[in-house]
Specification:
With 206 residues, the protein is of the alpha/beta class. It contains ten helices and seven strands. Strand 6, helix 9 and strand 7 form a beta-alpha-beta unit. The N terminus is likely disordered.
Length: 206
């Protein structure tokens, strides 16, 4: 009797925002998506969303040249104004649904319920807590000129920490940031939100 052939899933490449790299890897580990591979565009595109679509266009073309057939875009629209969708359509790939990671972490249906009330909220995630100095304090000069805090954050009312994990140190950073910026504080334990289902769908695309 011949041994049964074990079907090995074809590799799936996720080209993601560097801000969610740790979370993508965590989902891959917990869900057992060993065939899912990850490469990232720079996290600081968060500040330059006009760069996302052109960089993704190049990244997908390079991945195709390397032989990847199944590719998933680990971004929501993220301020690209529809440009990322046009790149996805050009290459026949899909992306994470939603306007930004702050939405898909909460789950799109949950985000839609709070979006209006959150109009004056400043979101932070696990990544942004880890990188608070590198992403906010130093680039904005707040470490040298705290008087600029009002200029940059004066229109916000509340800091909302969207927590992907339970980490007291990260929560301390978020609380301290709210205090520093003069904002009310709220924590929402989101986990990975819609990211898990999006990656599960991508992992089955073989």
């Amino acid at each position: 009797m011949k041994p049964q052939k074990v079907l090995v899933p074809e590799k799936v490449l996720v080209i993601a925002c560097g801000m969610i790299a740790r979370e993508v890897l965590a989902v891959r580990e917990t869900q057992g998506f060993a065939h899912l591979e990850l490469t990232c565009l720079p996290a600081d595109f968060h500040y330059r969303p006009d760069r996302i679509a052109p960089a993704m266009d190049i990244a997908i073309s390079n991945a195709r040249a390397q032989g990847y057939r199944n590719i998933f875009v680990g971004y929501a629209d993220c301020g690209s104004g529809g440009a990322l969708d046009r790149v996805c359509e050009k290459h026949g790939v899909e992306r994470i649904e939603g306007p930004h990671c702050f939405a898909f972490y909460q789950g799109l249906s949950a985000f839609e319920r709070v979006a209006e009330d959150d109009m004056l909220s400043f979101y932070m995630t696990d990544f942004l807590c880890r990188q608070f100095d590198a992403f906010f304090m130093k680039p904005l000069g707040l470490d040298r000129h705290p008087e600029l805090i009002q200029d940059f954050f004066g229109n916000y009312q509340k800091l909302v920490y969207l927590a992907q994990t339970v980490d007291p140190q990260l929560e301390t950073v978020a609380r301290d940031a709210a205090r520093l910026l003069g904002l009310a504080y709220e924590k929402r334990q989101t986990g990975y939100g819609d990211l898990t289902d999006a990656l599960a769908k991508a992992a089955q695309n073989r």
